[in-house]
C-alpha cells in the first residue's frame, strides 16, 4: 500500500469516526438543548441514560399519532370545579317566572326586533304575535344586516319555518311549553346542527356536517325555541376573525365585535335574534358581550352539557346564552341546564331564581381595588356601584386570592393543542386565517414545549385557586367585578364560577362598557337576580345601535 493511499484511508477513518461520534452524540446534544429550553441541566451520563428512554417513548408517541382521535373524544378524566367539602345550596329547584301582565304589542314595528324574550313570550302566549311572524322577521333581518356584520355562517330557514308553524299550532291549541316557546334564536357555529354545516369558523372544517344536534340544540327544540341561524365565531373559538372575514360591532361597524362568540353577540345587539347561544373558555362570552353591549351568562362549569360542541379545552369550555337582559338569560339557562351522560362533567344541581329579589337579602362583595384602579370604564363602574347601593346592596370589600396567574394559561394551551393535535401535525393549520404569534397555529406548536410535569403542577396550582375561591365565597352570594380588569376573568374561568356580564354605560360612543356579577358554584340564581335588579334600575341594556351605519365591509 503506497503512502498516499495510506494517508487517504487514515483521513477517511478519522472523518467517519468523527461522523459516527457526532451521530452517537446527536441525541444527547439535542436533549441537552431541549432541557435548557425548559430550564433544566443534566450531566452527560444522565443525558446518555435519558436518550434511551426518550427513544423508547418516541415509539409510543408514533403509535398514538397513528390513531385518529376525533375532537369529540374526551380524555379519561373529567374536571370537577367542586373543591373538597363542597355542598350544593340547601334550596331545591325553585325557578319562578311568569310572563309580565299587560304586555302589549309595540305600535312601532321597529321596536319588535329589540324586545326581550320576556316580553316576546307574553306576546306569543297572548297570540298578539305568532312564532312564524317573529321567525320571518329574524330571517329577513339576518339576510339584510348579516352580510355587513359578517355574523351569519348559515341560515336554517327550512328547519326554522317548520318549527315556527308547529309552535303556532301548539300555542293556538293552548299548549304552552314555556317562555321560549316560539322564540327565534341563533347558535354559535361550534354547535352541531343536524344536516347543516358546522364550520368551527375555520377553513379546514367548512364542509363538516354532523348527523345529530348538540345537546343544547335538542333541549331548546324541546322548549319550543326556533333555530334560525348558525352564527360566526373566531377561528376555533378565538377572536372575531373567521374564514368569512371579521365579525363587526353593530355600534362601530369599522371595528370588530370581539370574540369568540362574535356572531352571537353582534346578532343580538343588532336585533337580528332575541337571544343566541355562545361559549366561553376564557372570555368568549364576557368579551363580545362587553364590546357589543348585550347581556351574557357564563354558567358554572358542569351546569350545561357540551355534547355536540367543538372541544377547545375539556376542563374550561362552557356554553351559555347572550341576550337582551339577565332575566332572558335565566330563561334560557332553565331550558338548557342539567346532567347529561354524554358529557361526564355535567352534574344535576338545583337552580333557584326569583325575579324581583331585594338586594339587601344578598351578601354581595366587591373587588374594591380593581374598581379604584384607573381604567377605561372607571366612571361607568363607579356609577354602577352607586346604583347597587341605592338599591339596598351592602357591598363588602374583598380581594381575590393572591396566587400567580401566568402558569394557569398552560392548562388552556396544552389541552387545546391536544384537541387539535392532528391539525398541527398535518400542517393544515396553515389554512387558518390568523397566523400571528398569539394565534392558534403558533400556540398549538409552542404548547408542545410545555413539560408534562409543569402542566400537572399548573393543575395543582388550579386546585389551590379553587380552594381559595371557595373560601372567598363562603361569606358571599355574589361578587361584583370589572369585566376586564385584574385577574377575575382568568381566575373565575379556571375555578368554573358563573358570571353574568351586563352593559353599564352609553354605547353610542362605541366604547366597551360592562360590569360583571360572579356567583357561587352553581349559584347563578343570585348573580342573575342581582344583575336583573341593576337592569330594572337602569336602561343601558335597552340601547340600540344605529344600523344605518352598516355598509358592506
Can you summarize this structure?
This protein has helices spanning 3-37, 44-65, 117-125, 131-149, 157-172, 215-222, 262-269, 286-292, 326-336, 368-372, 378-390, 409-419, 421-425, 440-446, 452-473, 488-495, 524-537, and strands spanning 94-96, 152-155, 184-188, 226-231, 241-242, 245-246, 248-249, 252-256, 275-280, 295-298, 318-323, 352-354, 364-366, 395-397, 478-482, 499-503, 514-519. It is an alpha/beta fold and 553 residues long.
Description of the molecule:
The protein has 553 residues and is an alpha/beta fold. Helices cover 40% and strands 13% of the residues. The chain is built from 17 helices and 17 strands. The protein has an eleven-stranded mixed sheet with strand order 2-4-3-9-11-10-16-17-15-13-14, with helices on both faces. A two-stranded parallel ribbon has the order 1-12. Strands 5-6 form a two-stranded antiparallel ribbon. Strand 5 and strand 6 form a beta hairpin. Helix 1 (3-37) crosses helix 2, helix 9 (326-336) packs antiparallel against helix 17 and helix 12 crosses helix 14. The radius of gyration is 27 Å and the shape is globular. It starts with a helix and ends in a 16-residue tail after the last helix.
Amino acid at each position: 500500500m503506497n503512502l498516499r493511499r495510506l494517508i487517504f484511508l487514515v483521513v477517511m477513518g478519522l472523518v467517519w469516526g468523527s461522523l459516527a461520534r457526532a451521530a452517537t452524540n446527536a441525541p444527547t446534544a439535542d436533549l441537552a438543548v431541549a432541557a435548557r429550553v425548559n430550564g433544566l441541566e443534566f450531566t452527560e451520563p444522565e443525558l446518555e441514560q435519558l436518550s434511551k428512554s426518550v427513544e423508547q417513548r418516541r415509539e409510543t408517541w408514533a403509535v398514538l399519532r397513528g390513531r385518529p382521535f376525533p375532537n369529540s373524544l374526551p380524555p379519561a378524566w373529567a374536571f370537577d370545579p367542586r373543591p373538597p367539602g363542597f355542598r350544593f345550596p340547601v334550596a331545591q329547584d325553585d325557578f319562578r317566572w311568569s310572563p309580565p301582565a299587560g304586555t302589549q304589542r309595540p305600535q312601532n314595528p321597529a321596536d319588535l326586533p329589540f324586545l326581550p324574550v320576556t316580553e316576546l313570550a307574553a306576546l306569543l302566549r297572548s297570540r298578539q304575535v305568532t312564532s312564524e311572524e317573529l321567525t320571518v322577521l329574524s330571517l329577513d333581518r339576518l339576510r339584510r344586516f348579516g352580510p355587513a356584520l359578517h355574523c351569519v355562517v348559515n341560515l336554517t330557514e327550512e328547519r326554522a319555518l317548520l318549527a315556527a308553524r308547529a309552535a303556532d299550532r301548539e300555542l293556538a291549541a293552548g299548549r304552552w311549553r314555556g317562555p321560549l316557546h316560539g322564540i327565534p334564536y341563533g347558535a354559535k357555529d361550534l354547535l352541531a346542527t343536524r344536516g347543516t354545516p358546522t364550520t368551527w369558523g375555520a377553513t379546514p372544517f367548512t364542509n363538516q356536517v354532523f348527523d345529530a344536534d348538540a345537546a343544547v340544540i335538542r333541549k331548546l327544540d324541546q322548549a319550543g325555541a326556533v333555530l334560525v341561524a348558525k352564527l360566526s365565531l373566531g377561528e376555533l373559538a378565538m377572536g372575531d376573525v373567521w374564514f368569512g372575514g371579521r365579525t363587526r360591532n353593530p355600534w362601530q361597524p369599522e371595528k370588530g365585535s370581539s370574540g369568540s362568540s362574535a356572531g352571537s353577540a353582534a346578532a343580538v345587539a343588532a336585533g337580528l335574534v332575541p337571544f343566541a347561544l355562545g361559549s366561553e373558555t376564557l372570555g368568549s362570552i364576557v368579551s363580545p358581550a362587553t364590546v357589543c353591549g348585550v347581556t351574557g351568562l357564563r354558567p358554572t362549569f358542569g351546569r350545561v352539557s357540551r355534547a355536540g360542541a367543538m372541544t377547545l379545552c375539556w376542563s374550561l369550555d362552557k356554553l351559555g346564552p347572550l341576550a337582551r337582559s339577565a332575566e332572558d338569560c335565566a330563561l334560557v339557562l332553565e331550558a338548557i341546564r342539567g346532567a347529561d351522560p354524554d358529557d361526564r362533567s355535567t352534574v344535576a344541581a338545583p337552580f333557584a331564581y326569583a325575579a324581583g329579589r331585594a338586594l339587601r337579602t344578598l351578601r354581595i362583595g366587591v373587588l374594591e381595588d380593581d374598581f379604584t384602579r384607573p381604567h377605561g370604564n372607571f366612571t361607568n363602574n363607579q356609577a354602577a356601584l352607586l346604583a347597587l347601593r341605592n338599591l339596598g346592596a351592602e357591598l363588602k370589600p374583598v380581594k381575590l386570592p393572591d396566587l400567580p396567574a401566568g402558569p394557569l394559561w398552560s392548562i388552556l394551551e396544552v389541552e387545546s393543542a391536544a384537541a387539535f393535535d392532528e391539525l398541527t401535525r398535518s400542517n393544515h393549520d396553515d389554512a387558518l386565517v390568523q397566523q400571528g404569534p398569539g394565534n392558534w397555529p403558533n400556540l398549538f406548536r409552542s404548547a408542545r414545549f410545555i413539560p408534562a410535569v409543569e402542566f400537572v403542577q399548573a393543575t395543582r396550582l388550579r386546585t389551590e385557586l379553587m380552594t381559595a375561591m371557595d373560601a372567598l365565597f363562603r361569606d358571599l352570594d355574589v361578587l361584583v367585578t370589572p369585566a376586564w380588569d385584574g385577574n377575575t376573568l382568568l381566575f373565575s374561568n379556571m375555578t368554573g364560577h358563573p358570571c353574568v356580564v351586563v352593559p353599564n354605560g352609553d354605547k353610542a360612543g362605541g366604547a366597551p362598557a360592562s360590569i360583571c356579577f360572579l356567583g357561587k358554584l352553581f349559584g347563578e340564581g343570585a348573580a342573575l337576580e342581582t344583575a336583573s335588579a341593576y337592569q330594572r334600575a337602569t336602561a343601558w341594556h335597552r340601547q340600540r345601535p344605529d344600523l344605518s351605519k352598516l355598509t358592506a365591509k
